[in-house]
Specification:
The chain is an alpha+beta fold and 541 residues long. The chain contains 14 helices and 25 strands. It is 27% helix and 29% strand. Strands 1, 2, 7, 8, 9, 10, 16 and 17 form an eight-stranded mixed sheet that branches. An eight-stranded mixed sheet has the order 5-4-12-13-14-11-15-18, sandwiched between helices. It has a four-stranded mixed sheet with strand order 22-21-24-25. The radius of gyration is 24 Å and the shape is globular.
Length: 541
Amino acid sequence: MEHERVPVLVVGGGYAGLSAAALLAWREIPVMLVERHPGTSVQPKAFGVGPRAVEMLRPVPGLEEQLANIWTGIGDTMRIAIAKSLTDPEPHMIMHDEHEELAFLSRVTPVKTIGAPQAEIERVLRRKAEELGADLRFSTELRSLDQDGDGVTAVIRDADGDHVVRADYVVAADGHRSPLRRMLNVPTSGKGELGRMCSIMFDADLSGVVRDREVTLWYLQNDVFTGVLVSGTGVGAHVLGVNYADGQSESDFTEQRCVELIRTAIGRPDLDVRILDTTSFDLAHTLADTYRAGRVFFAGDAAHTMPPTGGQGGSTALQDGCDLAWRLWLVITGQAGPDFLDTYDTERRPIGALTADAQLANLGVRMPPALRVGYPEPLDDPAGALLGFRYHSTAIIDEPGDDGSILEDPRVPNGRPGSRAPHVVLDWDGQRMSTIDLFGSGFVLLAAKSAGQPWMDAGRLVKDRLQVRLTRLLVDDELMDVEGRFTEAYGVRGGGAVLVRPDGYVAWRSLDLASDPTTTLETALRHILSRHRPHPPTAAA
C-alpha cells in the first residue's frame, strides 16, 4: 500500500478545513486535505463572513480582495424580518439596517463584513489554497486513523484504492457528525439535535417583493411551515429552508411540494418557480468537550455545531482553521514547544460555546416553535461580540487584577493581554494602513519612538536567541500615528511595549520601560511559546 508523508493532514473541505489548508500553505507548511465529496458546496449555505474572520484571512495576498469581489446579489444592506410570507403587510423587523447596527465597525477594524454565500467563498479558498501549494484531494475519504508518540497514521481511500498517510498532526474539520470525533471517543455536550431542515435552492423573479422591501433574510412563521428564506436582488438563486414537521422525511419534499412551499413563502400562489437543488441538514447545538485528542484538533462543526440563527457559525469555523494554522506553524518550525498546542482548546473552546449559545438563544426568539425553556438568553451586545472576545491561556500573560472576562467592548480598546490588538490608523511612507495590517506573519513588538529603542534592541537579541520570527516596530518613526491614538489604545504611555501574536492578539505588555528589557521580553516569550525545555531551533526568523 502506498505511503505518503505530510506535516498536517486536514480532514474536511468546508470553511474550517479550507482556511486551515490555505493559511498553512501560505506559511509554507506542506498540507494535505481530504474531502469525501467531489467538490466544494453546491448550495449557498451560510451567508456572510464576519470582520474577525476577514482579519485573519487578510494577510494572504489577494484573498480579501477576491472575497470582496464575489457578487452575491445581497447588496450593501442587511435587513432581517419575521413574517408569514414575503408579502406580509406587517413584517416584524429585527434588524433594520446593517449600517446602523454595525456602524461602529468602521472605527474598530479596517475590514468589512463580506456578504457572500459559503459556496462561493469555499471556491475562492480552494483556488487560493491550491495556488499556494496545498494538496487538496476531493472524492477522498478517511478510513482509519491511529496515533502514537511521534505522529498519526491515516488510511485514506480514493478512486484508486487505499493509501497510507503519515502526518504529524490532523485537523478534524469533518462536520457536525464528525466521524473522527466518534472514532476518538470525544464526548459532547449541548442541546443536541434540534430538528431537521430541507434547504431548497430555487430560481424565481422576486423583484416586485424583494426590491420593494429590501429584506435579505426572512424568518417565516405561517400555518403551513416555519423556516427561513434568503433572497438575492430579485432575479436569480434564492434559498428557502423549511423545518421538518413531526414524522416528515426527505421523501416528503417532492419537487411539486417544494414549489408549493416556495409559493406559500413568497405569498404568490401563481409564482413561476424553478427548483435548482434540494438537500437536508440537521439543526443542532452540539459542543465537543475538548478540541484536542492527542495529535488531532477539532475545528468548525466538528467542534461546535450551532443553529444558523445569527450567522456566526461559518465565521467561527473560518477562525478555527486560521487559528490552528498559525499555532501548528509555530510548533512544526520549532518556534514553540509542543505544549503550546494545548492553548488552542483553552482559548477557542470558550468562544465556540459562547457563540453557539448565542445562536441558540436567537433560535428561541426567531424561530418558534423552538422552546426557550432552558435556552440561554441573547447576548446583551451581539455586535460587540464580533470583535470583543478575549483569550486566557499560557500563551497570554495576564496582568495583575485581570478580571478574566471573555468579552469586552471593542469600541473602547485598551490593549490589555488577551484582547484583540486595537485598530490604529498609521502612515508608512505616505501610505495609510492599520495596525491590523502588521500582524499575521509572526510576532510583532510595538513601542513608541519616544522611549522604545531599548525594547527594539531587546527584541533583536531575543529574536536571534530564540529563533522566533519577530518584527520590531517603533511607532512615530517609520510608522506615523496619524490620529495620535497608539499609546492610549495600547496602554504604553510610560515607555512600555506590547507583544502581539500572529493572530493579532496581545500576548504580553509592559506598561513602563523595564530595567532589563531583554530578560523581561525573553522570559515572557519563553512562557508564551511553552519553551520550558530545550527545543531544537530551525530557520524560523
